Amino acid sequence: MSIVHRPRRMRKNNEFRQLVKENGLTLSDLVQPIFIEEDAIERTPIKEMPGIYRIPESLLCEEIESLYELGIRYVMPFGVSHNKDGLGSDTLSSDGLLARMIRTIKKCKSDMLVIPDICFCEYTTHGHCGVVAEGQVDNDKTVENLVKQSLVAAQAGADMLAPSSMMDGLVGAIRHALDKSGYTEVAILAHAVKFSSAFMAHFVPQLTVSLKAIV
Ligand SMILES: [Zn+2]
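That is the input. Now the predicted structure with zinc ion docked in place:
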């Protein structure tokens, strides 16, 4: 006679499940993306992400304070630029939106970890993540610019960088440049993989980005 196992003993109630579960999800596992729009006056709802708004740059500190009140300690700022050009040069300036966002957050709450998105698509008129040549994104020229952008972010006070463009050689080049410039303590959150999932298309409401790998 065969024995049929019905192993539900360890999950029959909350107490058992808390005891034996392998994984837990807390606020420390989550990063809050925030979308900061320069020269904006009021919050604008992002209709693809119910409950998420583009926040005017002038209200950034207020936003950070309310996230802090909720216990959130990690934010990923994305710039919504009104100063785009073909290169995305605004983001290479120490007075550009990227650097200003980082400085404002750190000044507002110094123990809020700032993990800016590192990419050009928010700052280029064509919307590509990097340098476009003959209809193609040029990998190596894009990496060069992303390295410059990373140094601007590190200088502004970023704790960790989140390069999202998936260029080959990107993470190694940024790590090398950070170390050479004395930013050995600035970490990199590498988007090791992107899936066609709700996490990446373009973030789930209420909002969490999974940490893929930390270098
Ligand atoms: Zn991008």
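Helices lie at 14-20, 60-69, 97-108, 139-156, 170-180.
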